[in-house]
Amino acid sequence: MQRSSIDVIHSLETLLSKDQVSTEASVLESYGQDWTRFTQPAPLAIVFPRSTNEVADIVKCARTHKFALVPSGGRTGLSGGAVAANGEVVVSLDKLNTIEAVNKTDRTIAVGAGAITQAIQAAAREADLFYPVDFASSGSSQIGGNIATNAGGINVIRYGMTREWVAGLTVVTGTGEILELNRGLMKNNTGLDFRHLFIGSEGVLGFITEATLRLCSPPKDPTVLVLGLSDMDAIMLVLERIQGTTPLLAYEFFSELAASKVVEHAGVARPFDTKTPFYALIEFERDSEETEAAVFEAVEACMESGWVLDAVMSQSVAQARALWRLREDISETITRWTPYKNDISSTVSKVPQLLSAVDTVVHNHYPDWEVCWYGHIGDGNLHLNILKPENLDISDFKARCGDVSVDIFEAIRGLGGSISAEHGVGTLKAPFLEYTRTESEIASMRAIKAIFDPDEIMNPGKIFLAN
Q: Which of 12, 73, 345, 392 is most buried, judged by most C-beta within 10 A?
């Protein structure tokens, strides 16, 4: 260890306490990476602040000693946004995990950035309220990371992204300044709202340490439908038909390959005997017999049109949860194949074109590779997962996927879509940011970062390529 590194660690141990600073190899390995697994972690140390003030002190120390900081939440990200590969100090927010009592009058809940998403949902539920942002990793993801990536998930079609539910933030900027943004107000029209700069900023402006979240009434009797679809075109035809019947809570899709992986490796039962190219998972509120009858009628019409080949509807909470596993277990199940993930989007009406164009690109380049499709198709978000062949070296696999990504992103740019719908840019998408953002936009984002992080110590290498 170089003298400067020893000085840094000594300064951190003096600033905090020895039990809040770790250089243990297993801890460095764990906290130095996220779910992407494409980069070898190499952080200098991991620190565990217990308060916003301690986070501010860490930032000031980093400015003085000129070392970089990487925020760490649940590390469930899929774009390399929490990777520390160049001797950075990782700032874990695990200990900032407070969840205060729900304010039923304001319909808000105040939480620390390290609070687990599922725990926040449970606290809202105990107060007969609902925090609607939900996804497969909610049991391990932290709210600070959700906010820093403007997480979406399965309910966006009804409730929108995380941004819609953040009433206030406490942040520590790259200068060590503590800002309280919006303070939970519903109406506050006093100039620029910096809260929205930090939402989705991936830690390049500073640390989110506390948040006030909005809550709402829970849905009534959520009911799940799984439909076996005849082909790609049927995906949007069914959405249009059923969405015209009742507002939907979710409209998810997945391919037969995705279904077969979950059935075989996660022990999930098939929804029905019929195997179809694609499946739609629909959730709606069964708030009356009329709603149920209308949905039945819409499904029957889709079957008569040949779009739906088989269908099942949940009759209990347990069955609804079992059907959801078909969709929610996909990401964890396919992790064993070290998938190269593309989280892409277009407007909902252009999804069939996007799906067809990208599928053609991938199969033209690598016809023998397994391509696993799933996503939140009701809001235009597709997850393309290219599974690594068993005999292919991981670095070679990543490089070859990067090559094909150029053609994929060209197709996305042609449709006016996004190269990252909800996972953020991180390190994996940074080389391709220009496919969604113009040169002027990128320059403006860099200028904003320079204001909040003049020393460039905050999560370097994320979103932007080095100058």
A: 73
Q: 3-class SS at 160?
A: coil
> 23-34 burial string, b = 16+ CB within 10 Å, else e?
eeeebbebbbbb
Q: Output 15 or 366, whichever has higher pLDDT.
A: 15
Give how far the C-alpha of residue 184 lies from the chain's centroid of Cα atoms, to the nearest Å: 24
* C-alpha to C-alpha distance for 159 and 175, rounded to whole angstroms: 34
Tokens of 103: 């304010």
Ranges assigned E (strand) in 190-332: 206-214, 222-229, 248-255, 278-285, 308-313
CB-facing half-sphere around the CA of 64: CA atoms within 13 A = 12
For 238, 254, 331, 377, 384, the CA distances from 373, given in Å and listed in that order, are: 18, 6, 11, 11, 5
Per DSSP, the three-state class of 356 is: helix
Strand order in the sheet with 178-181: 108-112, 206-214, 166-173, 178-181
Cα–Cα distance between 324 and 432 in angstroms, integer?
33
CB 49 within 8 A of CB 20: yes
In the predicted structure, residue 37 carries a pLDDT above the cut 80 = no
Domains of the chain: 3-93 (3.30.43.10), 108-214 (3.30.465.10), 222-331 (3.30.70.2190), 338-436 (3.30.70.2740)
Overall pTM > 0.85: yes
Helix (H, G, I), strand (E, B) or coil at 353: helix
Q: How far apart are CA 369 and CA 390, in angstroms?
A: 10
Helix-strand-coil percent breakdown of the chain, rounded to 5? Answer: 40, 20, 40
**Which residue in 78, 92, 180 sits closest to 142, CA to CA?**
92
Per the model's pLDDT, the better-predicted residue between 353 and 466 turns out to be 353
